[in-house]
Amino acid sequence: MPATRPIITLTSDFGYRDHYVSALKAAIIGIAPEVRMIDVSHSIPPQDVMAGAWVLRNAAFVYPPGSIHVAVVDSKSGTSPGPLAIKIDDQIFVGPDNGLFSLIAVDKEYSAWRITKPDIIRKKFPVMHYGRDVIAPAAAWLASGNRISDIGEKVEDIVTYRWATPISDNEGIQGWVVHIDTFGNLISNIPSSMLEKSAGRALKIYVGTTILNGIVKNFSDVPAGDPAALIGNSDMLEIVVNRGCAEELLGVQKGAPVSVIFQK
Fold first, then answer.
1. Which end of the chain is less enclosed by CB atoms within 10 A, N or C?
2. CA dihedral 126, 128, 133, 134 (to 10 degrees)
3. Are the C-beta atoms of 52 and 100 separated by less than 8 Å?
4. pTM beyond cutoff 0.85
5. Mean pLDDT within 213-220
6. Domain final position from 155, 177, 205
7. CB neighbours (10 Å) of residue 34?
8. Cα–Cα distance, 24 to 40 (Å, whole number)
């Protein structure tokens, strides 16, 4: 059987209006033309590092072992101390050291290297773009079979951020909306495991001026146009609207409180 072609995924805040995504791909193909490139998302809100971190958290670990994940969000903030190559479990991540890897590195063992190997960094353009000239070439270099430990100097700590941790007691849970997806679903920082503390009691969920009774299993459990609370595929409590947009209907933005009250 032929050898499996290496996989490089791409996540960025570049959008599709300009040439930036194609420049990343051109840099990769020029070094490793055999790779399979998979676009995860190029619609991360500009400079929204934690939105990028959320997408990586949910996308990366479904890929085969040895996959390489290029992530470029707010890359200018990563120019100092410089981009990283990181190994977590059986996956490799390449991107700026600006908190983009927070949600995958904060609770996992990782090994990280600063990308400093001179012959990786492209210098053919008068102005360096870290995504095109460092991060993408580094990913292609790794996909060509080179060892991550040869990419530069080992670093012990990387920049990480934490979302606020939900607060819980016997009366309920106080959380917040931490992400809004492309459908306008409001994703909270309340994991399903915290809801187990309700011990079978009925729940009331407050978000904005909306009060929801309990958690449904599917969108279709409520009429079209109605809001509901459910556990999404990220295993977090989400506020959704069946065939609608919770962000617009409820007038709620990131950072809004989500309160779960255990009924007596």
1. N
2. 140
3. yes
4. yes
5. 94
6. 155
7. 10
8. 14
